[in-house]
TrEMBL record, chains A, B:
<feature type="active site">
    <location>
        <position position="141"/>
    </location>
</feature>
<comment type="function">
    <text>The RuvA-RuvB-RuvC complex processes Holliday junction (HJ) DNA during genetic recombination and DNA repair. Endonuclease that resolves HJ intermediates. Cleaves cruciform DNA by making single-stranded nicks across the HJ at symmetrical positions within the homologous arms, yielding a 5'-phosphate and a 3'-hydroxyl group; requires a central core of homology in the junction. The consensus cleavage sequence is 5'-(A/T)TT(C/G)-3'. Cleavage occurs on the 3'-side of the TT dinucleotide at the point of strand exchange.</text>
</comment>
<dbReference type="InterPro" id="IPR012337">
    <property type="entry name" value="RNaseH-like_sf"/>
</dbReference>
<comment type="similarity">
    <text>Belongs to the RuvC family.</text>
</comment>
<keyword id="KW-0234">DNA repair</keyword>
<dbReference type="Pfam" id="PF02075">
    <property type="entry name" value="RuvC"/>
</dbReference>
<comment type="subunit">
    <text>Homodimer which binds Holliday junction (HJ) DNA. The HJ becomes 2-fold symmetrical on binding to RuvC with unstacked arms; it has a different conformation from HJ DNA in complex with RuvA. In the full resolvosome a probable DNA-RuvA(4)-RuvB(12)-RuvC(2) complex forms which resolves the HJ.</text>
</comment>
<keyword id="KW-0233">DNA recombination</keyword>
<dbReference type="InterPro" id="IPR002176">
    <property type="entry name" value="X-over_junc_endoDNase_RuvC"/>
</dbReference>
<keyword id="KW-0479">Metal-binding</keyword>
<keyword id="KW-0378">Hydrolase</keyword>
<feature type="binding site">
    <location>
        <position position="141"/>
    </location>
    <ligand>
        <name>Mg(2+) 1</name>
    </ligand>
</feature>
<feature type="active site">
    <location>
        <position position="68"/>
    </location>
</feature>
<keyword id="KW-0238">DNA-binding</keyword>
<keyword id="KW-0227">DNA damage</keyword>
<dbReference type="InterPro" id="IPR020563">
    <property type="entry name" value="X-over_junc_endoDNase_Mg_BS"/>
</dbReference>
<feature type="active site">
    <location>
        <position position="7"/>
    </location>
</feature>
Amino acid sequence: MRVLGVDPGLTRCGVGVVEGVAGRPLTMIGVGVVRTPADAELGHRLVAIERGIEEWLDEHRPEYVAVERVFSQHNVRTVMGTAQASAVAMLCAARRGIPVALHTPSEVKAAVTGSGRADKAQVGAMVTRLLRLAEPPRPADAADALALAICHIWRAPAQNRLQQAVAQHASALKGRTR
Amino acid sequence: MRVLGVDPGLTRCGVGVVEGVAGRPLTMIGVGVVRTPADAELGHRLVAIERGIEEWLDEHRPEYVAVERVFSQHNVRTVMGTAQASAVAMLCAARRGIPVALHTPSEVKAAVTGSGRADKAQVGAMVTRLLRLAEPPRPADAADALALAICHIWRAPAQNRLQQAVAQHASALKGRTR
């Protein structure tokens, strides 16, 4: 399973590609940041993010795209830009028919560190260890994008089981009403 | 001047095209709503909005796109979807090199009714009068999109004068430091 993780942001949009399956060592395929100038017009910044994401999709052909779920509660000032950057990432993936998964920051932290309240340094340290890197990816947005991809790979089996259970339950209900 | 107004939303994205110049009667060229099903995946909804906006741009070739500026303070539950729909509208316009202007809800209300606190009915009534329509456009999102376009046409001369004043001031300062 090859996953592109996207940590959305207008100034720095973290992107990271991880390959592997749950229960086996994971491999980092690529990591980077799509940047846009803070003084550019918002429309142009969104176009630059689109171009950047498209390049990552072209080059790495992920089967899934995992994007951080944005909450309006946090960082009220920057949350609009984060929501807009995440929309562009989701749009690029969905346009190609690539399934998009959203994971909350605490799901991601819990997946890679065991605690939903872990700090940036702890996430960076675990990403470095799990992907057997020489040093933590910089900036933190790049490490967060890799953490998102790892989270998605590890949660996928559970999500698949859940979906199967829901489908079975639904078909059982259907059978009953016939 | 031909302006496409966009009242962004995931479930209903209002779109309206108005042509005219400040100080002259305005003409409605088209009005409608781009809808996406609430039970569809977010990525697919964003793709549907992109397709809808592209169709409006193709058909009406506006010179400007005016989008409602989204604030995180209001309607915390729906604001993320609004921000994401607005990102798609801005992206579509900027990709074609069409200038994007953002106007706040109170700027729009003040422009068409004289009061920044006007309600939906008042905005609808004034849009109907200003565009000489037989009845108020439905739903309210469609009327709001037309109000955005009207606001942009009426504010444009003031904004141009402001930009000219800023440019003159900047060149005067430059002259002084030589």
